Each structure stands twice: as structure tokens, then as C-alpha cells.
């Protein structure tokens, strides 16, 4: 049995590059591609130690772990320990997924008894298995990391909120939106945007009709409406700008208070306005309210 060195190096080069590039993509790291190439070359050179008996001590688990740390540091230039940990964990998970998929494919395409044949262990890492395995592994990695990212986002930025108004209350699942800077222009009170159907029991029918009309850009007389409803249900018109809408208005009202619940604490807020939104804020993340970031931070 012999190994063509050029093919061996090429396979290692491809595998190392795609593992590091996948780690960059999944962890959303903005490291330059040249850093990925440097890390790839370092890993490829390391693969040559198997041909030098005097360097085989570098294949011990502890040495492999240390060299993996070096590769990740070279490739991603992490500025914080937290980001380094995330990238290192991603690197290892992706590496195991790639190896597992490639070995699994080889197991399925060959009889189990052939695994015992001389030279088959290296043969199962041929370029065909590597390319197909990497394509499958990339899809698997994206699914795993997207799911994890969503779970982490829910844990850090999604809260249960109770809204209390005139002896009634309702529960809302809210996202703390760092892009939500909506405030009442006069009092500078932050606005908590909530879907109309979640606060339906608070809102008189006449106001629901107004909110629907606004969402359809219907022309209505605000002054007449505000004067008519001021005693029954004081409304606060809040101007806003968004993509494709330079002069929108959302109607709001002041609740008695809200309670923001997290795993660590409960925050009671009175100085807040509920903005009434006619529509769905999100289907994927399963939230129906957008909290102003200053409400939490």
C-alpha cells in the first residue's frame, strides 16, 4: 500500500478549508478569507506529522487539542473569550459532523467486512466521499446551528409580558428589539408595539375600526376621533418612519402598568405606551410584541 502525497495534501487542504469556512459562516464571524487560508495551511502541514515517527507525539489527544486551539485562534482572531469559545466549539462540532458523515457514507457503500481490509481506512477518505460528505455535512451543520441560534435568541431577547389596564390584563410574548426606537414625540415615553388581537379585550370597537383604517392608509379625521374618544379611551397618535412608509402613524394608549418576566427577575413598568399594531409581527419567532430596548437595558 502506498499513498500519493499530492492527493493526501489536496484532500486535507479541501477538508480543512471547508471546515474553517463553514465555522466562519455558521458563527457569523467576519474574519478575512486570508486568515481562513492561513489556518487551513497550518492544519494541512500538521497532517504531515503522520509520516515522521519522531513527530508522532503531536498526534496525542492533548497535543491535538492544543493545535486545534492554535488553528482557531489563527483563523478567527477572536477578541473575547466568549467568541473564541463559540468558534472553537463550532469548529469541533463541524469537524465531528464532517468526519461522521464521510465515514457513514463509506460504511453504507462498502460491506462492513471490507473495513478490516488493509488500506481501506485511508481509502474511505477518497475525494468523492469527501466532497459528497461535506455537502451533506454543511446542510446538517446549518440546521443544527440555526436551531441553536433561535433557541439562544429566545432565551436572551424574548420575554413574557403582562399588560394591566382598567382591571383587565393580558399576556404577551415580546421580543426586545434593539432596532425599535419608537417613542412618544412629546413625552419621550418608550412605545411597546403589540398586535391588536392580543389586546383585543382592552380596545373599544370604534378604535379597532380606526386602527384597521390606518393600516389600510384610509383618510380619517384624527382631531374629531380624538375629541370623541378622549374620555372613554384616551388615544396617543405616534408618528413613525419605516421602509416604504415615510409618514406613518400608530395609535397608542397608556396602560396602568406592565410586568416583564424573565428567568432572573420581574420588572414593573408604568412609564410606557402600548402601540396598537394591526397585523402579525412574526410567525417564525412566535412573538406578538416588540419591546423598546430601553425598557430592559
From TrEMBL:
Annotated TM spans: 6-23, 35-52, 88-107, 127-145
Name the UniProt record assigns to this protein: Sporulation sigma-E factor-processing peptidase
A Gene Ontology term for the protein's cellular component: plasma membrane
Coiled coil: none
Keywords from the UniProt entry: Aspartyl protease, Cell membrane, Hydrolase, Membrane, Protease, Sporulation, Transmembrane, Transmembrane helix
UniProt family annotation: Belongs to the peptidase U4 family.
Function: Probable aspartic protease that is responsible for the proteolytic cleavage of the RNA polymerase sigma E factor (SigE/spoIIGB) to yield the active peptide in the mother cell during sporulation. Responds to a signal from the forespore that is triggered by the extracellular signal protein SpoIIR.
GO molecular function annotation: aspartic-type endopeptidase activity
Highest taxon listed in the record's lineage: Bacteria
Keyword Transmembrane on entry: yes
EC class name: hydrolase
Compartments, record wording: Cell membrane
An individual GO BP term: asexual sporulation
Organism (species): Tissierella creatinophila DSM 6911
EC number annotated for this UniProt entry: 3.4.23.-
Active site: 177
Amino acid at each position: 500500500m502506498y499513498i500519493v502525497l499530492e492527493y493526501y495534501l489536496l484532500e486535507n487542504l479541501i477538508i480543512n478549508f471547508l471546515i474553517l469556512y463553514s465555522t466562519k459562516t455558521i458563527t457569523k464571524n467576519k474574519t478575512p478569507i486570508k486568515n481562513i487560508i492561513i489556518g487551513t495551511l497550518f492544519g494541512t502541514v500538521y497532517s504531515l506529522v503522520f509520516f515522521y515517527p519522531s513527530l508522532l507525539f503531536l498526534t496525542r489527544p492533548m497535543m491535538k487539542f492544543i493545535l486545534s486551539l492554535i488553528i482557531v485562534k489563527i483563523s478567527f482572531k477572536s477578541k473575547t473569550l466568549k467568541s473564541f469559545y463559540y468558534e472553537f466549539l463550532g469548529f469541533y462540532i463541524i469537524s465531528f459532523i464532517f468526519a461522521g458523515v464521510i465515514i457513514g457514507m463509506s460504511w453504507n457503500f462498502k460491506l462492513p467486512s471490507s473495513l478490516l481490509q488493509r488500506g481501506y481506512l485511508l481509502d474511505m477518505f477518497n475525494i468523492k466521499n469527501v466532497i459528497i460528505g461535506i455537502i451533506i455535512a454543511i446542510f446538517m451543520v446549518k440546521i443544527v446551528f440555526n436551531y441553536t441560534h433561535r433557541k439562544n435568541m429566545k432565551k436572551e431577547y424574548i420575554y413574557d409580558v403582562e399588560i394591566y389596564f382598567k382591571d383587565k390584563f393580558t399576556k404577551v410574548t415580546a421580543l426586545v428589539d434593539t432596532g425599535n426606537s419608537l417613542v412618544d414625540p412629546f413625552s419621550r415615553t418608550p412605545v411597546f408595539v403589540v398586535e391588536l388581537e392580543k389586546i383585543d379585550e382592552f380596545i373599544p370597537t370604534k378604535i379597532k375600526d380606526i386602527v384597521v383604517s390606518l393600516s389600510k392608509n384610509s383618510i380619517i379625521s384624527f382631531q374629531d376621533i380624538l375629541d370623541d374618544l378622549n374620555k372613554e379611551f384616551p388615544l396617543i397618535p405616534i408618528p413613525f418612519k419605516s421602509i416604504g412608509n415615510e409618514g406613518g402613524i400608530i395609535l397608542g394608549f397608556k396602560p396602568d402598568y406592565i410586568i416583564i418576566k424573565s428567568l432572573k427577575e420581574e420588572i414593573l413598568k408604568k412609564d410606557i405606551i402600548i402601540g396598537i399594531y394591526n397585523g402579525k409581527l412574526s410567525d417564525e419567532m412566535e412573538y406578538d410584541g416588540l419591546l423598546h430596548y430601553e425598557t430592559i437595558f
